[in-house]
Amino acid sequence: MYLLILIFTLFAAIPTWAVELYGAWQQGGYIYGQAEAGAQVTINGKKAITAEDGRFLYGLDRHFKAEAVVQIKNAEKTFERTLIIEPRSYKTQHIKGVSSNKVNPNTKELERIRAEKAAITKARKTLSTANFPIKMAYPVSAPLSGVYGSRRTFNGQERSWHKGADLAAPSGTPVVSPASGKVIFADETFFSGNIVIVDHGFGLFGHFAHLKDITVRVGEEVDTKTILGHVGSTGRSTGPHLHWGLYFQNVAVDPLLWLQ
Ligand SMILES: [Zn+2]
């Protein structure tokens, strides 16, 4: 409802410009819109992913500061609008019973972790504007057991904040792609276990982690009927669940804000 009011206000405010702004304007959220074809779009001076037809997308990180200055330029004119980005508060989740090497990996495991992180970061440099990923469905239907942004401790030791949503589905539940796209990574990794990464387009990448198995291959086109794999508990996990992560380029955003 709040979003609708914002959109309505925006339309009323800029009747002369063919620029439309939408999204979830909060930390972990996103801004998307339609500018004129060929326009350049920046948010606080950083480039949004923009297609030739003027559609664009930008992800807002967990710590995003209060204001997002959206600037859209074409040959003749500049449009600028400041959006207020709502702050969020994050809780701490304490996770116990984690294998000790998944909390304090040894030297060899640290090397493996670094290599996997580099490979995933590289995969997320893929740029495609074939799909515009503004609507997503749940990849599994299950209760939430972990939310985006929370600080976390493993066996009492503080580790990185949670970059996704955990859905506590039983082991073996099929995981369906929440939107169409292309598989850019599918492998077994140290922390994420069996993971599939889907390029949904416009710099947005879905992560599906801790899978029991993987049923797609790198390069495969997927849609909302494609089973990517099945829920499991591989990697740093204490029980069957799907970790659903969503990244705008290499910035983790909240997947639940994409559900319509
Ligand atoms: Zn998770």
Secondary structure topology:
Blueprint: H1 2-13, E1 20-24, E2 30-34, E3 40-43, E4 46-47, E5 49-50, E6 55-59, E7 67-73, E8 78-84, E9 92-95, H2 100-103, H3 107-123, E10 144-146, E11 151-154, E12 157-159, E13 165-167, E14 174-176, E15 181-189, E16 193-201, E17 204-214, E18 221-222, E19 227-231, E20 242-248, E21 251-253
Parallel strand pairs: 9-11
Antiparallel strand pairs: 1-2, 2-6, 3-4, 3-7, 5-6, 7-8, 10-13, 11-12, 13-20, 14-19, 15-16, 15-18, 16-17, 17-19, 17-20, 20-21
The structure holds zinc ion.
Description:
The protein is mainly beta and about 260 residues long. The protein has two domains: about 1-85, Immunoglobulin-like; about 90-260, Distorted Sandwich (Glucose Permease (Domain IIA)). It contains three helices and 21 strands. It has helices at about 1-15, 100-105, 105-125; strands at about 20-25, 30-35, 40-45, 45, 50, 55-60, 65-75, 80-85, 90-95, 145, 150-155, 155-160, 165, 175, 180-190, 195-200, 205-215, 220, 225-230, 240-250, 250-255. The strands form four sheets. Strands 10, 13, 14, 15, 16, 17, 18, 19, 20 and 21 form a ten-stranded antiparallel β-sheet that branches. It has a four-stranded antiparallel β-sheet with strand order 1-2-6-5. β5 and β6 form a beta hairpin. The protein is globular, with a radius of gyration of 19 Å. The two termini are about 15 Å apart. The structure holds zinc ion.
Oligomer: single chain
State the helicity in percent bands. Answer: 10-25%
CATH superfamily of the largest domain: Glucose Permease (Domain IIA)
Overall 3D shape: globular
User: What kind of sheet is the major sheet?
Assistant: 10 strands, antiparallel
Strand content: 35-45%
Uncertain regions spanning at least 5 consecutive residues? 11-15
E-strand count: 21
State the distance separating the first and last CA atoms: 13 Å
What's the CATH class of the largest domain, please?
Mainly Beta
Number of helices in the DSSP assignment: 3
Overall structural domain count: 2
**CATH fold annotation of the largest domain:** Glucose Permease (Domain IIA)
Structural class: mainly beta
Mean pLDDT level: 91
Order of helices and strands: HEEEEEEEEEHHEEEEEEEEEEEE
Ligands (ions, cofactors included): zinc ion
